[in-house]
Specification:
single chain; alpha/beta; Rossmann fold; TIM Barrel; 3 domains; 6-stranded parallel sheet; 22 strands; 18% strand
Length: 568
């Protein structure tokens, strides 16, 4: 039996995919399901990753190649995935109606009434999927009747599940930060969340239950040993929403992690109230390799924190950051703006707090009323939502309005000021340069493009200058004057055009080839990598092997990993 798992992670606009996540991000749910069904004897499993595809036409081309041999097409669906997922499902069914389509994930679990009417879907699994999906495969294989709506069986003892299929997505996880070296792996030690933030709950409790189920420390350590023996990883992330909620568990983990001699740099998520109350544990985590902690500070306004039912205080936000700095733990700070009832003064209070916290890396989202959350109901009851379709559930999209009564232009100005406070970009650029082969580094010649707004490009040029790096910049003649006083530019190549296209570059290819560039930087204005394909292909024609895209949040993506096959 051949099984295709679909990882969405994209929105859909005019049949073009709009990625929400990095294409090398591991989908732990699908990886766990793959491992479980393989353990039950279903070994012919492949994954289609839409984050590696350009559009519906490309998916259709792939679907035609695989449809005749495929028995089951299974889709994990988040709310922001719905348009793309349903389109792909309809295409699969139109090519081969005998394929059984199975849908699961958080959106069908929370919004079953939205998914149920689609006749192309044969089965819907709500809740956790490993056990129930394997049982369904048995029924399909043996031509036994099964219910269309299946309540997922919750595995109470997570130690009984096999370790995730780390290679399902085609490669290991991409390292999130320049302070982490690849190979980079990630694991999850538990399921569920005991907290009651209104922007998230009760959806997670509906999916995973009210209690947190956590694997034993011994089981987690064994997975890490297995991963190290197989991949010799240099760093890792523990992906749990809040790893540190169980003090006894985390203390035992620290001891066993050290005893197993696994002390590689790692990255976790925690909360400010835990950090403030448990400074010795944070010190101990730093001793065994904790280099970065992701924290949901959310707001610098106590009224907003209370409104969100966050259960923390602004004072704790400040104190927790000081504790992290004290032990050399870098901070990835998560902040939410545009919360219902938030005032401009309160948004400025968050900016002021961020300037005091000094996060290494910053993630800003505009509040989005996600289905299944208390604030989703609040927005419905108060007629606040401006969301037009499921694509708008993308929380990281700062270009569109989410709810009524919010000045989004003001928030974008605040966000621009916030991103200027982080030092991540400079470190990230230097980290990528350091990772290049020695022969490239010793003869480094960088070509960069004015492929994003002037302010964004200047920010990158400043970061290059801080690292004493010189580049040649290709700029449209209409923008050339903006870069007359930039020290990091060695040569400015002005092209008379409005937009970079293959035809525009055609006459310049011979000249650019003779310059012998070995590295390229493409500033990205969005996560839509494929809108930069002409620039990427030009770089390849010139002979440049290392082509980096710098995303709006300062993440650096090696674009070669984007333009590869999506079927693993």
């Amino acid at each position: 039996m051949k099984i295709i798992l679909l990882h969405c992670g994209v929105g859909l606009e005019d049949n073009e995919f709009k990625p929400r996540v990095h294409p090398d991000t591991i989908h732990h749910g699908l990886c766990s399901i793959s491992a479980y069904i393989k353990n039950k004897g279903y070994n012919d499993v492949q994954c289609i990753n839409l984050c590696r595809m350009k559009n519906i036409a490309e998916f259709k081309k792939t679907a035609k190649k695989i449809a005749s041999q495929t028995d089951v097409f299974a889709v994990s669906m988040m709310s922001a995935d719905v348009e793309a997922a349903l389109k792909c499902i309809k295409i699969i069914k139109s090519i081969n109606s005998k394929i059984k389509v199975v849908v699961g994930g958080i959106h069908p679990t929370i919004m079953l009434h939205e998914v149920e009417p689609y006749k192309e879907i044969d089965y819907i699994i709500t809740g956790e999927g490993e056990i129930s999906f394997a049982n369904l495969l048995n029924s399909i294989k043996n031509n036994l009747k099964a219910k269309r709506i299946i309540q997922g069986i919750r595995p109470e003892n997570l130690d009984e599940l096999p370790f995730i299929d780390s290679e399902l997505m085609g490669r290991l996880e991409s390292a999130y930060m320049p302070i982490f070296q690849e190979p980079f792996v990630s694991i999850i030690t538990g399921r569920g969340c005991i907290y009651n933030c209104k922007f998230c709950q009760p959806s997670e409790k509906i999916l995973f239950g009210k209690k947190v189920r956590r694997r034993s420390v011994q089981n987690v350590i064994q997975e890490l040993i297995t991963l190290y023996n197989k991949y010799k990883y240099n760093s890792l992330m523990i992906h749990d929403d809040c790893l540190t909620e169980d003090k006894e568990w985390i203390q035992e983990f620290c001891n066993e992690y050290e005893r197993a001699n696994l002390c590689k740099p790692f990255f976790i998520q925690s909360r400010v109230d835990f950090i403030c109350k448990n400074e010795p544990i944070m010190e101990r985590l730093a001793e065994i390799g904790l280099k970065l902690v992701s924290i949901g500070f959310e707001s610098g306004s106590q009224r907003i924190l209370n409104f969100l039912n966050k259960g923390t205080t602004v004072e704790q936000n400040i104190k927790a950051s000081k504790i992290c700095h004290k032990y050399g733990i870098k901070i990835k700070g998560n902040f939410m703006f545009g919360v219902p009832t938030e005032t401009k003064t309160e948004a400025k209070e968050t900016l002021k707090m961020i300037q005091e916290i000094k996060p290494y890396k910053i993630s800003v989202t505009f509040f989005t009323p996600l289905p299944g959350s208390d604030l989703f109901k609040f927005c419905e009851n108060n007629n606040l939502s401006l969301l037009q379709n499921h694509n708008n559930y993308n929380r990281s999209d700062l270009s569109s309005a989410k709810i009524k009564g919010v000045d989004y232009d003001f928030l974008r100005d605040i966000t621009a000021q916030i991103y200027e406070t982080q030092t991540f970009l400079e470190d990230n650029i230097q980290g990528k340069i350091d990772s290049l082969p020695n022969d490239i580094k010793s003869n480094l010649k960088i070509l960069m493009f004015r492929s994003a707004p002037v302010k964004t490009v200047k920010k990158i040029l400043t970061a290059l200058g801080i690292n004493n790096l010189k580049i040649d910049l290709i700029v449209q003649s209409g923008f050339s004057r903006h870069f007359s006083d930039t020290n990091s530019i060695a040569t400015k190549i002005s092209i008379d055009c409005e937009k970079f296209t293959k035809s525009v570059f055609a006459d310049f290819i011979p000249l650019l080839k003779t310059a012998k560039y070995n590295t390229a930087i493409i500033p990205l204005n969005c996560w839509d990598y494929y809108s930069y394909q002409d620039i990427y292909e030009t770089c390849r024609q010139i002979g440049i092997e290392y082509i980096f895209g710098i995303a709006p949040d300062s993440q650096i993506i090696e674009l070669k990993s984007i333009f590869t096959t999506a079927l693993v």
